[in-house]
Each structure stands twice: as C-alpha cells, then as structure tokens.
C-alpha cells in the first residue's frame, strides 16, 4: 500500500482532492476572466480609436462645408449689393409712382398674410425705384438663404456618410 494512503484517512483524501479541484477550477476561472477582460479592453480601445477617427473626419467635413459656404454667401451677397446699386441706372427716379395698394399687396405677399383693408388708408404710394431696390434686396436674401440651405444639406449628407 502507498504511504500517503496509509497515513491519511480516506475522508481527508477526498477533502484534499475536492480542495485541489476547487483551486484548479478557481485558477482557470481567474485566468479565463483575465483573458476575456483583456479582449474586452482591446475591443473598447479599438472602438475608441474608430470613434476618434469618425469625429476627426466629421470635423474636417464641417470645416470644408463652412469654408465653401462662407465663400459662396459672400459671392451671393456681393452680387446682390451690386444689383441693388444698379437700380438707379435701370429704374430712373422720375418713373411712375405706384399706388399704396401695390405696397400693401407686396408686403402681404412677402409676409404670407392678406393685407388689412383698414391699413390701405394709411399706406403711402411708392416709387418704382424703391420697389426695384426692395425686390432686389428680397431676392438677395432669398439667394443667401438658399445657399445656406444647400450648405446645410451638403453637410448633413456628408456627415451621414462619415464612418
């Protein structure tokens, strides 16, 4: 008979084997947990890097779109100002006077609300030159807003495809 088996009674041998098994299982559990934790950390690091790259790309897109927009809006603004300055050359100051109703109707069309008939008594007539300058200014503002909207649409399109 073996010396170990003869010196240690069988209940203690079983207990020793159970404790050894638990220790072995615990060691495996800890090693496995560390391995999974390392994989988890690596995946998180990879995602953090990807997010940083996407944010960088989105920032570059924003810079490009804003730069292009600023240049376009300046061009549209300058063109509008040039046209407004040319109004006296195309519409002389001695041209006809438009009735007060024209001013009310134009303002109503711009605001999208029907003109108040009570205001027609207080309304002043307007010169064709003033009308031309107002219309040119309105179109300038409209083109600026359209340019802004185009830039916003481009920004949204490019941001949604940035990944």
Sheet with the most strands, sense and barrel status: 2 strands, antiparallel
Mean pLDDT: 87
Order of helices and strands: HHEHEH
Please report the number of helical segments. Answer: 4
Give the total of domains. Answer: 1
What is the molecular shape?
A: rod-shaped
Assess the beta-strand content as a share of residues: under 5%
Which structural class fits the helix and strand makeup? mainly alpha
Which value, in Å, is the CA radius of gyration? 40 Å
> Tally of extended strands?
2
Strand order of the largest sheet: 1-2
Distance between the termini: 72 Å
Low-confidence stretches: none
Helix content: over 70%
3D structure, described in words:
With 163 residues, the chain is mainly alpha-helical. It contains four helices and two strands. It has helices at 3-7, 10-90, 100-111, 128-160, and strands spanning 97-98, 126-127. The chain has a two-stranded antiparallel ribbon. The model has no long low-confidence stretch (mean pLDDT 87).
Short description:
With 163 residues, the protein is mainly α. The chain has one domain. It contains 4 helices and 2 strands, in the order H-H-E-H-E-H.
Key structural traits:
163 residues, mainly alpha, 2 strands, 80% helix, two-stranded antiparallel sheet
Spell out the blueprint of helices and strands.
Layout: H1 3-7, H2 10-90, E1 97-98, H3 100-111, E2 126-127, H4 128-160
Antiparallel strand pairs: 1-2
């Amino acid at each position: 008979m073996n010396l170990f088996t003869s010196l240690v009674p069988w209940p203690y041998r079983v207990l020793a084997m159970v404790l050894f098994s638990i220790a072995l299982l615990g060691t495996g559990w800890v090693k496995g947990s560390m391995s999974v934790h390392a994989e988890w950390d690596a995946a998180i690091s990879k995602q953090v890097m990807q997010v940083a790259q996407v944010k960088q790309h989105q920032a570059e897109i924003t810079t490009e779109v804003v730069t292009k927009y600023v240049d376009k809006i300046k061009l549209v603004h300058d063109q509008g100002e040039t046209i407004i300055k040319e109004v006296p050359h195309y519409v002389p100051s001695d041209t006809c006077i438009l009735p007060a109703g024209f001013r009310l109707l134009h303002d109503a069309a711009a605001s999208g609300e029907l003109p108040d008939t009570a205001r027609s008594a207080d309304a002043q007539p307007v010169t064709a030159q003033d009308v031309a300058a107002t219309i040119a200014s309105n179109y300038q503002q409209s083109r600026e807003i359209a340019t802004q909207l185009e830039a916003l649409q481009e920004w949204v399109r490019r941001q949604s495809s940035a990944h």
